[in-house]
Amino acid sequence: MRLKPTVLIIEDDEGFRKIMELVLARFGVNTKAVADPEEFLKAADSLNPNLYLIDLNLDGSSGFDLIKTLRERKKLTGSIVVVSGSKESEAISHALELGANDYILKPLDRVLLATKLSQFIQTDEIKEHSAKQTEPTDGRVEVRLSFDGQITSVDEIGIEFTSATLSPKGTVLKLNSDFFKLAGLPVTECLVTVASTWLVPDTGRYGAYAEFDGVSAEFQQALRNWLSRP
Amino acid sequence: MASLKEKHILIIDDAADVRLLARKVFETDGAIVLDADGCDSGLKIAREKNPQLIILDLEMPGRSGFDFLTDRKKDPVLLEIPVLILSGKNDRQSISKAIALGASDYMLKPFRAPLLLQKTRKTLRLVSFLVKKLKPDAHIPATLSLNGDIVGIHEGGCQLEASVKLGSGDRVKLVGRFIEDLGLHDVPTTVMPIPPTYANQGRYLNHIGFVGMNEERAKKVRKLLKDVVKVKK
Known about the structure:
The structure holds 2 protein chains of 2 kinds.
Chain A: E1 6-10, H1 14-26, E2 30-34, H2 37-47, E3 51-55, H3 63-72, E4 79-84, H4 89-98, E5 102-105, H5 110-118, H6 124-129, E6 134-136, E7 141-155, E8 158-163, E9 172-177, H7 179-182, E10 189-199, E11 206-213, H8 217-228
Parallel strand pairs in A: 1-2, 1-3, 3-4, 4-5
Antiparallel strand pairs in A: 7-8, 8-11, 9-10, 10-11
Chain B: E1 8-12, H1 16-28, E2 32-36, H2 39-49, E3 53-56, H3 65-73, E4 83-87, H4 92-100, E5 105-108, H5 113-123, E6 131-133, E7 140-154, E8 157-162, E9 171-175, H6 177-181, E10 189-191, E11 197-198, E12 204-210, H7 215-228, E13 229-231
Parallel strand pairs in B: 1-2, 1-3, 3-4, 4-5
Antiparallel strand pairs in B: 7-8, 8-12, 9-10, 10-12, 11-12
Helix pairs in contact in B: 2-3
């Protein structure tokens, strides 16, 4: 039998807190809902829940502080979802930067709540109530996907970069970076092919070496000039 | 820069003009060039002459360059000789397959002589290149992009098949007509803490979440999804 997942909620609106407790109980989840940040952190330590639902607009204490504190306590590994009435994209970005995994806005209906919960915790009831994945008419639809990395080293053939994403050997990527401008290169983007990849110790990030693809002689000369400068 | 003087290089390609051109490039730099016009003759010469590098075409009549790489894997002597692919096939699957079968590097036709020499020297580890290691506080931000396929979607997120394995919690951006049609182009997206699974042919199934959804927006997406996609059975 699967163990019930535990969700810890902080919400100072009593009405909304009660509704959340009720709905989550129906979703087959162990729930603890509190209004006080100190009580929340104590409960986090004792329960080590699978998921935290945090209201950003708490009296006297900011939900941002709680996200920061939870992420500093390394043994607490649960996902964090912010539930807020604030639609400001800056608040969303800040919460995600501090370590929140997702952000949902009030009001929210039962299907949306179940759908979002299903991405973090699983119960039969959540599965039953959440929206079903639908598939594009032709089975798949192409999109352009981009992710962030950090260039750590450059040589005449390619670059070394780190990223949270694993790019296996042979992957062809388009590289956009201020690096081109910084090095005085005649392009703003170029294709690179990943030649090797590794796990960077103690960071959970991946390192990769990728070679420049189809670059001009002018590019190579400008790159050599930049590399030979101290 | 170090030359290829007296290095033995075997070129395996069915196209006589490519063999001739590559021979000229290498001989000008002092290499001793051998050539073969197919997989089997290439294997024979490689076993007899034990060259220091093999330049291999992938598409050849009869047995292909992939067959050569497969046979090479079973031969401990040949396995010591690095192989540089020189091919007109520029699809990701061919590159991945050749690398997976043990090729050291890949170069596309038509080739430019300086790049062929540079890659050859690099494969033979004859030169040390100019390198700039950046200090941790001087790492340069970069955005890396590639194509992927949405294979499932709902108001909370989507399943994305791509050749990369996205890291949980990473911020990603999806761009495309489909995303625009659903009004999701300005919705931030993040990688959900559901481990990506291997799909097939070097691709991973990643789970992406739409961030900042509310009831109104979710209902709109639900309605639009009914219009543009079919429900998964």
